[in-house]
Amino acid sequence: MTIDDADGTGGTRPGYRDTAQVDMPMAPPRPSAPLPVRTRGGETSREVPPVPTPRPVVEGPIPLPPAESVPLSTVCTVERHLDEILGSVPQVDPIELAVLDAQGLLCAEEVVSQRALPAFDQAALDGYAVRSEDVAGARMSAPVSLAVVGESVAGTGVFHTSIGPGLAFRVTAGAMLPAGADVVVPAVWTDQGTVQVEVLAGPPAGGYVRRAGDDVAPGDPAVQVGTPIGPAQISLLAAVGRERVLVRPRPRIAVLCAGPELVDVGTSPAPGQVVDVNSYALAAAARDAGAEAYRSGILPSDRRRLTEVLESQLLRSDLVLIAGTMSPGGFDMVQEVLAELGQMQFRQVTMHPGPVQGFGRLGRDQVPVLCVPGEPVAALVAFEVFVRPAIRLMLGKRQLFRRTVQAIAGQPLASPLGYRQYLHGTVMRHPDGGYVVEPVGDGTDALLARMARANCLIVIDEDVTDVAAGGLVTVMPLLLGG
């Protein structure tokens, strides 16, 4: 649904990625300030004050959280954490698939046609195959009469047939042309006779004829490396005789959740327990991003079984995604087992919600493992910021990041100093052009129903603590991959 850019960069500020415009029709906005009054007959309209921009906080250094607040090794920016992930995520080796199974993937080979398309001279429409010189002077007032000496329909050959002066061959669309014919007169330009045909107008030489190799000649590239394979490419691959094609496969993503309070869907939670929604939400998000996601569910609390589960997922996956509360009291054993399997780092990232993130490459094959917060809203925000770009990189995509737009804030917005704030919101097209966005919630609560109503993320920079109503903010529309 998007067109891949060459590099996926080009933000409006250093380190921020992709602010290309997107055309997204929306419902009329509910602006908080009065709109201009449109008048007729030359009356003066009421002017709207200039839109204020967000007020950056510049006084004093940005405070960072105390190091003892969580068991973290470092504190870093969103860009640094993301760059470390993207710099460590490998691209999956190409595989050969049947052409229909390759839909939505990137071609990993240059497909060269071994045949001409079309394979023979054929009629482009129903009519009469003739010699152009025989019908050059045909017109309504002086039609040209030709003898119909045969008929050619699609699927039958006329290998030893030719026509001479004053002759015509009745043909259907896609039918092989007889030798000597260089033009097809549309049936509607004739009296459609079966023995003798009256031609009322003559097209120029080559008219309504598909010559052999006009579309693709032998040796021509049919589909090139990096081309997304869609219905048109599948059609061309089939036409040149390819049943299978080499593609970059969907990365296999294992999605797990950690926490002693979790129970699976279908189980009535006891007091203090919550239903595991993250494994479902994150698996769905990974599939929407293009991955082959497996919902592996809740991690066991027994250490030996926990180790076995993690080791098995590392063997079958290209990337492992774990959601859980990364703090003392419930997640420590998972962190310890992960550390036994390789180098794993947990850190505080300057973002809200969900500042605590983890990343490492574990196991014999150094499989990337990403850990995101256990709170469902924060988990999906972390997925958008870190996991989705990694999946698209593994797919070989050039455009890793969602497109963003600038929108007018429909109400005041607040953001913690020193953190990049991601607020769920609803973005709408302004009737006078541009976009208006309003948050769902105030960013301090984590309500699934509100998140389900959102269609975007509002992004507020680290050095901005408040945005006035009418101020400009960056908005990331959450368009579904389908």
Radius of gyration: 32 Å
Q: Helix segment count?
A: 8
Work out the number of β strands. 30
Strand content: 25-35%
List low-pLDDT spans.
Answer: 1-73
Q: Helix share of residues?
A: 10-25%
Terminal CA distance reads 7 Å
The dominant shape is elongated
Alpha-beta classification: alpha/beta
**Biggest sheet overview:** 7 strands, mixed
Strand adjacency order, main sheet: 2-20-22-23-19-15-18
Overall mean pLDDT? 84
Structure in words:
α4 runs parallel beside α7 (376-394) and α5 (303-316) crosses α6. The chain has helices at residues 78-88, 132-135, 231-239, 278-288, 303-316, 332-341, 376-394, 448-453; strands spanning 55-56, 75-76, 95-98, 106-107, 111-112, 122-123, 127-130, 144-152, 167-171, 183-186, 196-199, 209-210, 221-223, 244-248, 252-258, 262-263, 274-275, 292-298, 319-324, 342-349, 351-352, 356-362, 367-372, 405-409, 413-414, 420-429, 435-439, 456-460, 464-467, 472-477. β22 and β23 (367-372) form a beta hairpin. The chain has 482 residues and is α/β, with parallel strands linked by helices. It is built from eight helices and 30 strands. It is 17% helix and 28% strand. A seven-stranded mixed beta sheet has the order 2-20-22-23-19-15-18, sandwiched between helices. A five-stranded mixed beta sheet has the order 10-7-9-8-11.
